[in-house]
Design goal:
Layout (H helix, E strand, L loop, with lengths): L11 H10 L18 H9 L6 H9 L3 H13 L11 H16 L12 H9 L4 E5 L8 E7 L9 E7 L8 E2 L21 H11 L1 H8 L16 H10 L1 H5 L3 H9 L5 H4 L5 E9 L5 E9 L5 E3 L2 E14 L4 E13 L1 H9 L2 E8 L3 E11 L4 E11 L7 E2 L3 E3 L1 E4 L11 E2 L2 E4 L5 E2 L4 E6 L1 E2 L3 H6 E9 L2 E9 L9 E6 L6 E11 L2 E12 L9 E4 L8 H13 L3 H14 L4 H13 L3 H8 L11 H13 L3 H15 L3 H14 L2 H14 L4 H13 L1
């Protein structure tokens, strides 16, 4: 990150130059991509998948700009539907095109449209071949009709068994899908002269000639029976809508949003390999009063490579924390190397991987975005969360609830800052908040600014509801709580039935609700569910200078330079050998225009050739330029031209130094080279022109 430049109006010449110095920072050399017109090939693909593509997928596909991006999306689209990932064959893709070809061959006969565009073609492409087909053709009393029967599709939200009925309206044209409620049995019969609104009369007449068809005509769901009103119920029409929406059940289209959000942040080879993940973020205050952000990522699967008898996976984690103004306040970057023997690998396949991490964060409102990449398989996943860290001056507050299936005492609580460790307890949970009846659910939270009056007379109320019915309630007096810095309330789930529940916790004072938080959880009908296998990244103890360094860096990034200086000075004083701590402090000093101190810290660093990074040298040169030490600054900048090649920033600052030394010709020569490299520098052009006119 480039240090911030602050300049005062020391002279008319300096003021002239400062006006363009700010715009001479790095500028992207990438040309803007023009939006790619949808090619015939991509139009054809959209037609081919028009029945199975979700609205989200189509929306994202049409937003993509280049043909390359669209091709990558198509690859991703089919990978998300591949039932046997990792093999050369994509059975779902092959089956889709088989259905498409079959529909064109068999369902378009005698009609002016392609078979895949017919109602039968649409249903066949969506659901595949039916288990049974009953045809009513060449009948005297019934128009041409087909009844398809399906079963075994309950995973898509459909009944265990159901019919789809097609008929030729008035005996002409293509087969249309039949609605019991809209069309009614009368629409299936030739020459029906009865009351068109009397569905029951029509049903009786149809039953006399085709009893099996009559039953299906009133309800597409076997065994549903006749409606009391004498008309078909809405269930058949709802079924047809569910069939139309079944593509949404066949794939989790969240990957499409991730594709467009991260297409510029992940390498091309990762783009088509998004995997879903669970996640959770909580902020808890430690004993020193610092908020620590605890987060977890649970990728849906973990791909590994094998070498001899070992299995391994290499993960890379990158993340950013942005404030409400879009400034990057904190960055995460970690390498995670995993290695397993065959027994451990079997355990991993049965249990989800859970990656935990923790970092301090200053008060504010933030968005957190974390990208996890598996370098072994070129897969990626991401999580995004919003988070608010309360300021110390804020009034009574309560953290969101964390629902745990286990809480254990941490025997090494003083050695490191561990993710999801609070009040000397390790917290175990699943991001999906699913429990079994043998669990004891522990709800964990913190409350801040509890005054003596609330502690003496206040209560904690825990309530659990199912379908708005109160099934559990518990109250505890606050004066009975041993440690008011953390609350852990435990509920046995033994008497609860499987289903979804809402759990609420309130802080009460004289029956008035002061604070309130809620969470949703579920209890499964199975007796045992696999608990996550945890990989945890910890921080050094709370008294380690890394905490002051991280906090100071966040304060700097948020523009609070004086506060940042205090924290970074503390970190540097305790660990002066750290290059990162020295550079961090120098950045804050430079921002505060303490250029003498900036130079004092940076000069020793460049004595070691290993520390001669671009950022260190350039910051030192700028500090020396501000101090009027133009010869020293020029020496550093000229050496940078040799070491790092031609750079716009270096050239422009070098020109300033020569100009301030009085060497106008050299300054103009340097700036003209800069303008040749990047002509679009209007402030520099204006300044150079003005200098030449006055000579």
């Amino acid at each position: 990150m480039n240090p911030i430049i602050r300049t005062g109006p020391n002279s008319r010449k300096i003021g002239l130059l400062v006006c363009f110095l700010v715009v001479l920072l790095p500028v992207s050399g990438l040309a803007d991509q023009k939006k790619d017109v949808l090619s015939e090939r991509h139009k054809q693909w959209l037609e081919e998948v028009s029945y199975i593509i979700t609205n989200v997928e189509k929306e994202v596909f049409l937003k993509l700009e280049s043909g390359r991006e669209k091709d990558l999306f198509i690859e991703t689209f089919w990978k998300q539907r591949d039932p046997t990932k990792g093999t050369l064959t994509n059975e779902r893709k092959d089956e889709h095109y088989r259905r498409l070809n079959y529909s064109n061959k068999h369902f378009g006969r005698g009609t002016p449209i392609h078979g895949w565009r017919t109602d039968r073609g649409r249903i066949y492409i969506l659901l595949g071949p039916p288990q049974d087909v009953q045809r009513y053709e060449g009948k005297t009393y019934v128009y041409p009709t087909e009844v398809w029967f399906y079963q075994g599709l309950s995973e898509y939200g459909l009944p265990s068994g159901f019919h789809i009925l097609f008929f030729k309206r008035k005996g002409m044209g293509a087969y249309e899908i039949y609605s019991p409620l809209t069309d009614g049995p009368q629409a299936l019969m030739t020459g029906y002269l009865g009351d068109q609104t009397d569905y029951f009369e029509a049903l009786q007449q149809l039953r006399q000639v085709e009893p099996n068809l009559a039953d299906v005509s009133f309800s597409l769901i076997p065994g549903e029976g006749s409606s009391v009103s004498g008309r078909p119920s809405m269930s058949s029409d709802i079924l047809i809508q569910q069939v139309e929406r079944s593509p949404e059940k066949m794939v989790r289209d969240s990957y499409a949003r991730k594709f467009i959000d991260y297409k510029d942040r992940v390498d091309v080879e990762y783009s088509a390999n998004y995997i879903d993940s669970g996640s959770l973020v909580r902020a808890f205050k430690d004993k020193a009063g610092i908020f620590m952000v605890h987060y977890v990522i649970e990728p849906e699967n973990l791909s590994v490579d094998q070498f001899e008898e070992k299995y391994y996976s290499s993960l890379r984690l990158n993340g950013v924390v942005e404030d409400s103004e879009g400034r990057i306040i904190h960055q995460l970057e970690k390498k995670i190397s995993l290695e397993f023997d065959p027994d451990q690998l079997q355990d991993i396949y049965l249990r989800p991987l859970c990656i935990r991490d923790v970092f301090p964060l200053i008060p504010g409102d933030y968005s957190i975005s974390v990208l996890l990449m598996n370098e072994t398989s070129k897969e990626f996943t991401s999580v995004e969360h919003s988070l608010s860290i309360p300021d110390k001056k804020d009034e009574l507050q309560m953290t969101p609830l964390l629902l745990c299936y286990d809480v254990r005492k941490d025997r090494e609580q003083e050695k490191k800052v561990k993710p999801f460790s609070l009040g000397g307890n390790r917290l175990y949970f699943h991001s999906g908040k699913m429990f079994v009846r043998s669990d004891e659910l522990s709800v964990v939270f913190q409350v801040f600014k509890l005054n003596p009056g609330i502690l003496e007379r206040g209560k904690i109320a825990v309530e659990i509801q199912q379908d708005d019915v109160l099934v559990h309630v518990f109250h505890r007096n606050l004066r009975e709580v041993e440690d008011p810095s953390v609350f852990i309330e435990t509920v046995s789930l033994q008497d609860f039935t499987p289903g979804y529940y809402s759990l609420s916790v309130s802080v009460l004072l004289d029956e008035e609700t002061l604070l309130h938080q809620e969470e949703i959880f579920s209890i499964t009908h199975v007796e045992v569910i696999p608990r996550p296998w945890i990989f945890s990244k910890s921080l050094p103890p709370a008294n380690d200078p890394v905490h002051a360094f991280l906090t100071g860096s966040q304060l700097f990034n948020s523009g609070r330079f004086q506060e940042a200086r205090i924290m970074l000075e503390e970190a540097y004083a305790r660990r002066p050998e750290s290059i990162d701590y020295a550079v961090g402090l120098a950045r804050s000093l430079f921002a505060l225009e303490d250029f003498d101190s900036t130079e004092e810290i940076l000069l020793p660093l460049i004595q070691d050739s290993q520390n001669t990074s671009f950022d260190i040298l350039f910051m030192l040169a700028r500090a020396q330029q501000k101090l009027g030490k133009f010869i020293q600054a020029v020496s550093i900048l000229e050496s940078m031209r040799l070491s790092f090649g031609v750079n716009i920033e270096v050239l422009n600052l070098l020109g300033i130094c020569y100009f301030q030394q009085g060497d106008i010709d050299k300054a103009l020569e340097i700036w003209e080279v800069s303008l040749e490299m990047k002509p679009d520098q209007p402030h520099l052009l204006e300044s150079v022109k003005g200098i030449k006119e006055k000579r």
